[in-house]
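hey so i finally got around to running the thing on that chain from the lab meeting. sorry it took forever, my laptop kept dying and i had to restart like 3 times. anyway pasting the input first so we r on the same page abt which one it is
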Amino acid sequence: MQLVVARIGRAHGIKGEVTVEVRTDEPELRLGPGAVLATEPAAIGPLTIETGRVHSGRLLLRFEGVRDRTGAEALRNTLLIADVDPEEMPEDPEEYYDHQLIDLDVVTVDGTEVGRITEISHLPSQDLFIVERPDGSEVMVPFVEEIVTEIDLTEQRAVIDPPPGLIDDRAEIASARDAEAAESESGAAESGSGSTQEPGSAGGAEGGAR
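ok and heres what got predicted. didnt touch it at all, straight out
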């Protein structure tokens, strides 16, 4: 199985190094020196990693045969692809490879359908599930144990216990707007009926105050 493990960013320095956007939980395994990676576009690869180091929180790689900034810049936005055994599992039972999580159905603890995982976003602080909802919109779900309560690979589902607003914020906004619209219509109707009252009457004063 082929999986995207990184995307090459801009050149760093003048000796062929590039910044890398990591897309794997195991960069030390997938992006270590000696690793041979396919690429997208395919014509650029395969690329063999010669050296790797972390600088200011970013992974820097240098590939065999790339010795200057011009060569490094030519690799920008190239995807790096690793061959992974689909049966391979992480050593930690609480960890999962991206390909095991992609396409899992996402449901809440009460069984409500949320959507389907289409992407895993690896951020410095945490990982995020990008979940496509039935209406085609997307919601981001932090992959933390307080929210993702269960990963069931057999049933192909992820169970989540989302805090208020994580997945229902649009519904709350819509409800608020509906309430405001209803209140506005009600106010307009009352103002209209109040205007039929005689000037200075109690009915007219009350209608204007609302």
